[in-house]
Specification:
The complex is a heterodimer of chains A (260) and B (354). Helices cover 33% and strands 28% of the residues of chain A. With 260 residues, chain A is an alpha/beta fold. In chain A, the strands form five sheets. Chain A has a six-stranded mixed sheet, sandwiched between helices. Chain A has a four-stranded antiparallel sheet with strand order 2-1-4-5, with helices on one face. Chain A starts with a strand and ends with a strand. Chain B is mostly helical and 354 residues long. Chain B has a single domain (79-347), classed as ABC transporter involved in vitamin B12 uptake, BtuC (Orthogonal Bundle). In chain B, strand 1 (158-159) and strand 2 form a beta hairpin. In chain B, helix 4 runs antiparallel to helix 12 (252-274) and helix 4 crosses helix 13. The longest helix of chain B has 36 residues, at 63-98. Classes of the chains: A alpha/beta (260), B mainly alpha (354). Chain B: Belongs to the binding-protein-dependent transport system permease family. FecCD subfamily. Chain B: It is a multi-pass membrane protein.
């Protein structure tokens, strides 16, 4: 279980997050949605300990502020929104940075398997810096997957924190990457993803949290959060939520939205 | 099946660590060969054959030859090895820390800070209260100067986990200018003997090597290199940024502190014995990265070996080119290194996003 209580984050004098409480269960894919500037990424950065914050975060019952970096690394992987690389590493060498111990043969297999998982099996020896933005994003995901390769260990479930994992991907790779997150959750791990795309969140997510102006204004199953009232309030434009008969996932179409 | 064999080949080629590690032995052999050559070349008539004979016990040396070999050439050789290794490893460490291949102890002002510390002790040591003098005071002061500059530059040029290359280079220029100005004040105050010592700093040379100076600087350099070589995995992770390095399990603040201390110790001790020898720290790691990839686990060790070999070779050349006089070695390394620096800059202009 991941639990956060009273998360407040201030940048300078402005408070970005106002005492956010959050619970997420392992075995589920939880999507944090909300408009630009609502504090989605800041919330994720607070959960991963990157942003200075008030309040507490615990993973599997352990207060993350009291864990050492290597203990946390064994517990969760973090995919940042964008990562630059200073030196000309190959794709394999980047993925292996996720494998801390380094040299053993089984690790090499995990690196190759992780690359295959994100659809980059033939890219092992390519130079990372020569890849497209979307390919780099998937290499980073492979690195994170390699770090927490087994979704559940004897120490309990492991966690993936994904900051807009599909933001620079085409539709085919968006679905591929969301399926990776889905499979990680189905295997017993926990996934927290910051998402721009409401439809993908509704399709793949088990839970949805909608942030607006630093507060969670709705949370629950995607169908409960994806309502005309909630989304129109959060995104400040009139939207119409639709549902395919017989299918669970709700969706919205930009065609049906009107600016306020 | 084709895919499987493709994968297997990719893994071998995609990971260059094994090949880089295999080169440790090659570079060690290179260093040994260069070192022997260096012992056999000099202003007196002591040849490589004599040296090999003496080392194997087959050939007895005359008194004067013993002095040349054991009290002049040997300490000079060992100093060259220590200084070259220290400068190259410091360069590789700084580049990993600043996440940029243009960082170098000479270019960003770390050597200038070390030089200022050393000059302060040379001129004021023993005559001004609280400033000591002596063989150990110079390296300690150089270490403090190098530490102050490295720490200050990192603080100035890093905001929110991102290090600005432009800030680093420009702040380095300002620091070097300030250090040069302060050094000018001390040169103005210095007496004749001190002036001779100070001139030696500016040019950079191994000619002043002695067992006493080596005893003061050698252990510090050895400690710095050993500490540096433990940082390889952490520097690899740091290449992805401070946040990611923490996410994969490194105590980033501790790593940064250790890297800065190690750079200060290595550069400080190197500058204390040899003055301002530039560009070794940029040329060696850069060429090694081209040859074997940027994995710091192998890069740091290879940098130490190749830096030592390069400096010993340059020192030997400096003694031969205008024999029986000798060129200051700093001139040779600058002639070699400055074009490499320009080459890196022009090939990857995006590095300096001014």
């Amino acid at each position: 279980m991941l639990e956060a209580h009273g998360i407040r984050v201030a940048l300078g004098r402005r408070e970005i997050l106002h005492s956010v409480d959050l619970r997420a269960a392992p075995g589920a894919l939880s999507c944090i949605v909300g408009p630009n500037g609502s504090g989605k990424t800041t919330l994720l950065r607070a959960l991963t300990g990157d942003a200075r914050h008030d309040g507490t975060v615990s993973i599997n019952g352990r207060d993350t502020a009291r864990l050492r970096a290597w203990e946390l690394a064994a517990l969760r992987g973090v995919l940042p929104q964008a990562a630059t690389l200073a030196f000309p590493f190959t794709v394999t060498e980047v993925v292996r940075i996720g494998l801390r111990a380094g040299d053993a043969g089984e690790h090499a297999e995990i690196a190759a398997a992780a690359l295959g998982r994100v659809g980059l099996a033939g890219y092992a020896e390519r130079s990372y810096q020569e890849l497209s933005g979307g390919e780099q994003q998937r290499v980073q995901l492979a690195r994170v997957l390699a770090q927490v390769w087994e979704p559940v260990t004897e120490d309990g479930p492991r966690w993936l924190f994904l900051d807009e994992p599909v933001s620079s991907l085409d539709i085919g790779h968006q679905i591929e990457v969301m399926q990776v997150a889905r499979d990680f959750a189905d295997a017993g791990g926990g996934v927290i993803a910051v998402m721009h795309d409401l439809n993908l969140s509704a399709m793949f997510g088990d839970r949805m949290l909608c942030l607006s102006e630093g507060r969670i204004i709705a949370e629950g199953a995607p169908g409960e959060v994806m309502t005309d009232a909630t989304l129109s309030r959060a995104y400040r434009c009139r939207v119409r939520v639709n549902a395919v008969p017989g299918e669970a996932a709700s969706f919205i179409l930009p065609h049906m939205a009107q600016a306020d | 099946m084709a895919v499987a064999s493709d994968l297997g080949r990719g893994m071998r080629h995609g990971d260059r660590l094994a090949r880089a590690r295999a080169l440790h032995a090659v570079f060690a052999a290179l260093l040994a060969a260069v070192s022997l050559t260096s012992l056999g070349i000099g202003a007196t008539g002591l040849t490589l054959g004599d040296v090999l004979g003496a080392l194997s016990g087959a050939h007895a040396l005359e008194e004067i030859e013993r002095v040349v070999l054991y009290d002049i050439r040997l300490p000079r050789l060992l100093t060259g090895i220590a200084v070259g290794a220290a400068l190259a490893v410091s360069g590789a460490l700084l580049q990993g820390l600043f996440r940029n291949p243009l960082a170098d102890p000479g270019i960003i002002g770390v050597s200038a800070g070390a030089g200022l510390g050393a000059i302060t002790v040379i001129v004021l040591g023993g005559s001004v209260a609280l400033i000591p003098s002596g063989a150990y005071a110079v390296p300690v002061a150089a270490f403090l100067g190098a530490w102050g500059v490295t720490f200050g530059l990192y603080r100035v040029s890093t905001r929110g986990g991102r290090t600005s290359v432009a800030t680093m280079l420009l702040a380095g220029i300002a620091v070097a200018a300030l250090a040069a100005a302060l050094a000018g004040v001390f040169i103005f105050m210095a007496d004749d003997q001190q002036l001779r010592d100070l001139t030696f700093w500016n040019l950079g040379s191994l000619a002043g090597a002695s067992w006493v100076k080596l005893a003061a600087s050698g252990p510090a350099i050895a400690l710095a290199i050993v500490a540096a070589c433990t940082l390889g995995p952490a520097l690899n992770a740091l290449a992805l940024g401070e946040a990611t390095a923490a996410h994969v399990g490194f105590e980033v603040e501790r790593v940064k502190t250790l890297a800065i201390l190690s750079v200060a110790l290595g550069t400080g001790a190197a500058v204390a014995v040899s003055g301002g020898i530039g560009f070794v720290g940029i040329v060696v790691p850069h060429l090694l990265r081209l040859a074997t990839g940027p994995d710091h686990r192998a890069l740091l060790v290879n940098s130490a070996l190749c830096g030592a070999a390069l400096l010993v070779a340059a020192d030997t050349a400096a003694r031969v080119i205008v024999a029986p006089a000798e060129l200051p070695i700093g001139i040779l390394t600058a002639i070699l290194g400055a074009p490499v620096f320009l080459w890196i800059l022009l090939r990857r202009r995006g590095l300096v996003d001014l």
